Amino acid sequence: MGGDFVFDFPCIMYVLLSSRYALRGWHGLPFGLHDRKSGRNLLLDAESFHALSLCDGSTPILFPLVPAPLIDRVKSHIREGLAQICEPGTALPDDQAYRKTESRFTDLVQWSITGKYNLPCRHCYMDAPKAKYGELSTRQCLEIVDQFHAANVGRVALTGGEPLVRRDFWQIVDALIEKGIVLSQLYTNGVLLTDQTLAEFERRALRPTMVMSFDGIGSHDWVRGVAGAEDKAVEAISRAVQAGFPVSIETALYKGNLRRLKATYALLKELGIISWKVSRMMSTGAWARKGDQMDAPRQALFDAYLELGAHHHRDGAPFELALGGLYYGPKGSSLWMSPFNKFSGQADAAKQTACQSCRLHPYIMADGRLLPCIPMTGSQVEQDMPRLTETTLSRGLRGSAYFDRIDTRLDQVFVNNRGCRSCAHRFKCGGGCRAAAMTAGTDYFGADPDACFFFRNGYDEKLARKLKSSPASPMEIARARHAASLSKAPAAFIGSQIDRSQPPASERRTASAMAFQDRRRFGLACSLSQILCWRWRRCEASRGVMGNAMPLYLAG
C-alpha cells in the first residue's frame, strides 16, 4: 500500500511548529500563519494549514494514518524551517496553538496614539498644535491593545501627532510586546529620536522602521514652522541609520520644494534610507485653510515626478521610491510600475474594491475612531465611523459604516460618477483614490483629478518612453518588493493581502495583492487524519504495537 512512496524521513515522525510561528484564522479566512518575528500574518492554502496543524508534538505522522500528500507537505515545511522533528509528546505552547477570531483579516493597523505634536507644521492634517483630536487615556489605549490581540492583529504602526510626546509611550509599547504584537513602524519627526530613545528600543529587542518626515533641502524649516528643524531631521535620520534602524522618508510637495527634489534625492541616498515616499500636499487640516496658493501646479508636479523616476531607474534604485501615483520602483530592481494603473483594464475590474489598501491597513484616529485611511481625517466620512471606546475592533471591522466604505466596489463609483462611467480609462484607475477625490472638493464617489490628469495626458506612455521599458505587473512588483522576506517562504503562502470576500482577481492585481495564487483545497484531510490518529492511539494503547501492525489494522 505504501510501497510507491519513498521517504527520506523516519517512518513515524513527531513534529513541532517552529517557535517563530503561530497558527491563526479570521472571519472568512480560516487558514493563516502568524510570523511572530516580523508580525506579518500570512495566508495559507488549506493543505499546508492542515499539515502544520499536525505539527503539535503529539500527533504521529506516518502513512497511511496521514495521507501521503499531507506527509510530503509536512516534510516540505520541515525543510523550510516552519517545523522540526521533536520527541513524542513535546507540547506546543498555547500562544502558538490555533486561534481563530471573528474579526476581518488585517495586515497592519496604523494607530495614532496622540493628536498632540511638537512642531507647528503648516500642512498638518490633524491640526496637531491645537490637538483637535486629543488623545485617549492610558487605560483606553491598553484596552485597544487587548482588542488588537483579540482580533489577531500581528503588527502595528504607531503614529500621531508625534507619538513620542506621550509620557506613557513605553507603557503602550510594552503592552504590545506582552500581547505578541510587533511594532513595525514608528512615524516621527525625529526631534525626540535621541540616542536614549533608540537605546530603549534596542533594550526591548525592537527595531521598527523609523518613518520620518523630511520636506526637502531648504524647505523643511518653512513647512515645519521652526528654524533649525531641517538640521535636526537630518541628524535624526543619520542617528537612526547608524544605529541600525531602517529609515523611511515621507515628503510633502508644494511649489517651494519641487525644484529641490534631485538635491534631496542625493542627500537621502547618502544617508542610507530604505525608502522614500513623495506626494503632494493634501488639502486637509491646516493646509486646507491657507495652502492653496502654495500648491504645486499639476503639470509641473508630474513632470518633476517623470524626471526623478527616470533618474531613480538609471541610478539602480538605491532605495524604494514612490512618486505619487505616477511611479513606483522597488529597491535594487529594474522593475517599475505606475500605481495609478492599478486595475486590469477589463470590465471584470468593476467588481473589485476601490481601495484594497484600506481593507488591509485600518487606521485608528487619536480619539479612537476607526477610519479607512489617514488622508480621510477631517473628511465627511469621519463622522460616521465607529469608536473603539464604544465598540471593539472586531465588530468595527465587520459590521459598521467603516465596512461599507472599505467595501466600495468600482461599479458603485461608476454608478455615482457620470464622468468616470463614460471614461475609457475607468477599468485601469477605478476613479483613483477616494481620499484624494474628497480632498479635491468632490464627494466620496468623485474622480481623483491626479488620476484623470495622468491618463488624459499620456503620462503612462511618457514614463515608458523615458525609462525605455514597459511597466511590470503588480505581481512582479510584489515579488521584487518582498524578495528578501519571502525568499524562504513556503509555497503554501498565498499572501498576507488576499481577501476571499472579493471576487476573483484579474492577472493585474494591485501592488498590495500578494503574488501567490490559492492552491486547490484539501478540506477533508485534517479531519480524516485526526479520526485516524484517534483510532491509532486506541489501537496502540490496547495492543502495544506500532510499525508494521498499523497498516494491517487500518486496512482490516
Question: How would you describe the overall organization of this protein?
Answer:
The protein is α/β, with parallel strands linked by helices. The chain folds into two domains: 15-100 and 485-555, no CATH class; 109-296 and 356-407, Aldolase class I (TIM Barrel). It is built from 24 helices and 17 strands. A ten-stranded mixed β-sheet has the order 14-13-12-11-10-9-8-7-15-16. Strand 2 (21-26) and strand 3 (29-35) form a beta hairpin. It is globular.
Keyphrases for this structure?
13% strand; 10-stranded mixed β-sheet; single chain; alpha/beta; 556 residues; disordered C terminus; disordered N terminus; TIM Barrel
Please give the order of strands in the largest beta sheet: 14-13-12-11-10-9-8-7-15-16
Give the CATH superfamily of the largest domain.
Aldolase class I
Judging from the principal axes of the Cα atoms, what is the shape?
globular
CATH topology of the largest domain: TIM Barrel
Uncertain segments are: 1-7, 484-491, 493-556
Specify the number of helices. 24
InterPro entries: 4Fe4S-binding_SPASM_dom, Aldolase_TIM, Radical_SAM_PqqE_MftC-like, rSAM, rSAM_sf
Cofactor: [4Fe-4S] cluster
GO molecular function: catalytic activity; iron-sulfur cluster binding; metal ion binding
Pfam family, one: Radical_SAM
